[in-house]
Design goal:
4 strands; alpha+beta; 48% helix; 127 residues; 2 domains; 7 helices
Length: 127
């Protein structure tokens, strides 16, 4: 979501910023969660949702930016059960913004509900 906030500027994106601090084991290897997060970032690039210049060791990716495909996907209006109350005293445009995929992601993360996050991710992966 930080990529969407700074679009179209590029930024360095570290796994630690998304997952929190990671402890390497005695062999210098990261946890499976850390590896999965980095793998997901690289997969998003392979699928054309983000673009980046290089990896920063196993810590993150350098000069990453959303692609047009990624930005369009995040701003797609989706019909999902909405967590939290919608502000009904806003304009029609603002009320439609509350229905974008990125807004659903924000609400699901705030709610800390696995069920809501699962619904949002299913919507993301649905063509």
């Amino acid at each position: 979501m930080s990529l969407q906030r700074v679009f179209p500027r590029k930024l360095d994106l570290f796994v630690e910023d998304l997952n929190g601090p990671d402890q390497v084991d005695e062999f210098g290897l990261h946890t499976k969660r850390h590896e999965a997060c980095l793998g997901a970032m690289l997969w998003l690039a392979d699928e054309g949702y983000i673009r980046y210049a290089s990896t920063i060791r196993q810590e993150g990716i350098d000069q990453v930016v959303l692609t047009a495909k990624g930005m369009i996907k995040l701003h797609t209006i989706v019909d999902l059960p909405i967590s939290g109350m919608l502000n009904e005293s806003v304009s029609e445009f603002e009320s439609r913004e509350q229905l974008t995929l990125i807004e659903h992601m924000r609400r699901a993360i705030q709610s800390q509900s696995s069920e809501q996050l699962t619904r949002v991710l299913r919507a993301f992966f649905t063509p």
